[in-house]
Amino acid sequence: MTKIGEIKSLADLEEALSRPTEQDVAALRRIGGDVLILGAGGKMGPSLARLCRRAADAVGAPRRIIAVSRRRIEVPGVESIACDLLDRAGIAALPDCPNILYLAGRKFGSTGSPELTWAMNTILPAIVASRFPESRMVAFSTGNVYPLRAVSTGGSRETDPPAPVGEYAQSCLGRERVFEFFSSHRGLQCLLFRLNYAVDLRYGVLVDIARKVFANEPVSLSVPAFNVIWQRDANSYALRSLEFCASPPRVLNITGGETFSVREVAEFFAARFGRRARFDGTEGPCALLSDAAVSHDLMGPPEVSGQELMELVAAWIETGGASLDKPTHFEVADGKF
Known about the structure:
By secondary structure, the chain is of the alpha/beta class. It has one domain: Rossmann fold (3-Layer(aba) Sandwich), CATH 3.40.50.720. Helix content is about 40%, strand content about 15%. The chain contains 11 helices and 15 strands. The strands form 5 sheets. It has a 7-stranded parallel sheet, with helices on both faces. Strands 6-15 form a two-stranded antiparallel ribbon. Strands 8-11 form a two-stranded parallel sheet. The model has no long low-confidence stretch (mean pLDDT about 95).
């Protein structure tokens, strides 16, 4: 078992991202039944599928973990199904399953093809909710449904009214509203999983900033602060959130407990890499921040702290670790991704 400070290779990273906790195993034992992961081909899907498989193996009873995406993913012990998720016939042909982790959605490039973004983020939820009305469903969402806030006011809470900026964020609120309809009016047991921002060592806000500093490129200060969470912790919360699905749907903010300053993080990486931190512009007045106290009270705080994450990212980049080349665009303040 790879310890968190001993991640040296992609194999180590995949092992760490998919390692279930005792709480994960206990939750899956209580939940019972197979798990279907929709949209499993993205950044989080493969490691979440593997975590579910490992947790299921630890429980011991036979259980299917099924991953659905446009292209089959290769995860040992996980059944992979290739499916165009906007194809109603393809969704209809999927196996019945009592537990669904819904990761499907579209963000990057949404400015260029808004019609596809809206289709993926609002039509698809209706297709899926209609197909699986008896299932528990954890529907991934985003903190982008909240407005940007002054850093001094802290993060948005689940009870704060949404105020999405830009078409991507608006379509994400649309996704939530569709699931909310099926949950409140059709009895779907659902949880809206508002995540921002997950960090693996190959992508994430910390990686974006660190790589810019390492390459002697300026770091934008237009959005001056952010929250992050280690992807394995996000995976764990997703699995355990199946226990808290409800009708009407429950809403949970999922992120770490710290608020990071872009300037301070850049200066940390600069000191670590022996570089000079360079900046673009001055600190903007607002940031996209979430308060995850409710989920932390419910399921415990993340196991990996923000300081540990920065150390891991720095070590990964210093040693030439791989990148997914998928920037988060955390510095975008107008919602145009």
